[in-house]
Task: structure prediction
Amino acid sequence: MKVFVTGGAGYIGSVTTRRLLDAGHSVVVFDSLERGHRAAVDARARLVAGDLRNAAAIRDALAAARPDAVVHFAAFAYVGESMENPGLYFANNVGGGINLAEAMRLAGVKKLVFSSSCATYGHPERVPIDEKVPQRPINPYGESKLQCEGVFRWYERIYGLQPVFLRYFNACGADARFGEDHRPETHLIPLVLDVALGRRPQITIFGEDYATPDGTCIRDYIHVLDLAQAHVLALEKSVSGPFNLGNGDGYSVREVIAAAREVTRHAIPAVTAPRRPGDPDRLVAASAQAREVLGWKPEFPVLSDILQSAWAWKCQHPQGYGE
Ligand code: NAD
Ligand code: UFG
Result:
């Protein structure tokens, strides 16, 4: 299959591109490099530098590539930034999604795998979260992802697009070559590991008054390689619709820090601070649908293994991609 990967210079996109290439597919990466890294694009893929907000750029790139399928990662993905600058998120994530949908229609490409998020559920009505839980985002980032799903659904009804919505929970870990290097970094695991590396003095725990056993937020941490594998399966199967991707295990912020202390053998000092706006207490996936329909089974469900892979990558790339 020839696969067109938007956002393939980013964290999850780089690992998925590699996995697709290893599975025998060919890949064209389309990325503005605004928040990605040239060095994160596997040398076997062709990189087209372009911005999805430029309708002509994505239309021309897709027409030239003539792919069998599109995997759409490209987006801005900071919840906090989306609260400060919602227009940026709607323009980039929703505007970019509309341009992509139009370009796919014009090029006659039907198959789409879209990076959605558990952030579309907001404060979930029930946990573990299955795909039928109502989507009620509590920040513009989550809303932008939900609106993209809506756009792609209408293109499905009107033009026969075949969209798959992979709603990731908390992506983490690394493969042997590609890892997590967001600028700025806001995610818990890379920040905790930066403390162990001596690049930050301490980790700040945002809130210890949540309705959880130790008072800190619970998340479902899913290895980026398992996410990548779900994309390969979604592309190779004739399916559409939403799939929640998580391990089904919840770990609190304190549990993640404790596990990182074990893996890194570093004290990792922690301080507490008030809640970060927009954080739900507990997000844990029910991913039976992905397991049954896609045949997906996470290979790396154990938190210490996930941390170990992220730690190995950090130790080899203390400056990330170093650009
Ligand atoms: P990332 O920031 O590392 O990668 C995103 C890539 O998209 C970057 O390389 C960036 O340059 C590119 N990009 C952004 N806007 C673009 C545009 N207009 N045109 C072209 N390229 C553009 O992000 P990530 O952590 O790899 O996340 C990938 C996707 O998965 C995003 O859509 C994100 O919303 C979604 N997601 C991530 C998580 C997570 O835990 N990281 C969880 C749920 C969903
Ligand atoms: N946290 C801290 N201290 C930090 C950073 C994070 O206590 O320095 C806490 C957060 O408050 C949260 C938990 O650690 O309770 C996890 O936070 P992350 O920022 O690592 O991840 P989020 O759960 O906020 O969000 C991530 C991605 C989103 C995605 C979401 C769900 O950033 O793109 O997972 O998929 F939508």
The longest strand covers residues 111-117. DSSP finds ten helices and 14 strands in the chain. The radius of gyration is 19 Å.
